Amino acid sequence: MNQDTIAIIGGGNLGRSIAQGLIKNQFNPEQIYVTRTKVALLDDLKAQHIKTTSNNIEAVKNAKILIFALKPYRIEAVLKELTSHITPEHLVISVISDFSLEQFSNCLTPNIQIVRAMPNTAAAIGESMTCLASKNASAENISKTKLIFEALGETIEIDENLMDAATVLGACGIAYALRFIRAMIQGGIEIGFDAKTATKIASQTVKGASELLLQNGNHPEEEIDKVTTPKGCTIAGLNEMEHQGFSSSLIKGIKTSIETIQKD
């Protein structure tokens, strides 16, 4: 397909997920760069014809779209190295948590348009939920950013002041959901299933529950009511979970995660 060359600066878990999601959705792998200090760790991407390098400057010089997927503590040093090579001709996209558009802009020369995106690792299979925020970005660049991340799942535009919350709910949320599924699997084993069968049942059940909400647009309680019959096993189990603090512990976990992001 006709596309601008994309450089993903930072080939960790998220950067790799973005690259894998793009090529699964018909982006040309030969027009994607992924950088990492230990470039040998990207050999599986190289085998898929993605260009891999430890040289960030090389990647930036050869790309039109720059996606920064680094840890927050590394970004300022990397931008210092790259500032003179990033021009107004580039579209700069940050997927870095806890690093604002203003902070990013302050590290670059004037007139660089930046879009901030918060996808999750489900980007690797085209099922990410990506929240987008921008400051002074053109409509064209926002559209380009959406095109990239809609190839990886769903997108939604939010105010940047909600980006920390988006990080917790959408990115950390993958881990919360997986921990819930793991608990379902463990419970399934206790009641008689082998691990493989319990994993299949639990995973498909959670997938089905999500699709009910996405496709029907109902509140979760509407769907819960459909399976909670009087004196039935579902309501008995739900009530016991609530007695043990199921919902409150999840809410407290979400609040603790955002407090951790914001405490610095």
From TrEMBL:
Pyrroline-5-carboxylate reductase catalytic N-terminal domain mapped to chain residues: 5-96
Function: Catalyzes the reduction of 1-pyrroline-5-carboxylate (PCA) to L-proline.
Domain of life the protein comes from: Bacteria
InterPro entries: 6-PGluconate_DH-like_C_sf, NAD(P)-bd_dom_sf, P5C_Rdtase_cat_N, P5CR_dimer, Pyrroline-COOH_reductase
Its EC number(s): 1.5.1.2
Location of the protein in the cell: Cytoplasm
Domain spans labelled Pyrroline-5-carboxylate reductase dimerisation: 160-261
Catalysed conversion reaction: L-proline + NADP(+) = (S)-1-pyrroline-5-carboxylate + NADPH + 2 H(+); L-proline + NAD(+) = (S)-1-pyrroline-5-carboxylate + NADH + 2 H(+)
Cellular component GO terms, alphabetical: cytoplasm
One Gene Ontology molecular-function label: pyrroline-5-carboxylate reductase activity
Keyword field contains Cytoplasm: yes
Main location: cytoplasm
A biological process from GO: L-proline biosynthetic process
Entry protein name: Pyrroline-5-carboxylate reductase
Statement: the UniProt record of this protein carries the keyword Signal: no
Lineage, broadest ranks: Bacteria, Pseudomonadati, Bacteroidota, Flavobacteriia, Flavobacteriales
Residues the record lists as binding NADPH: N56
Pfam families, per the entry: F420_oxidored, P5CR_dimer
Record organism: Kordia antarctica
UniProt xrefs under HAMAP family: P5C_reductase
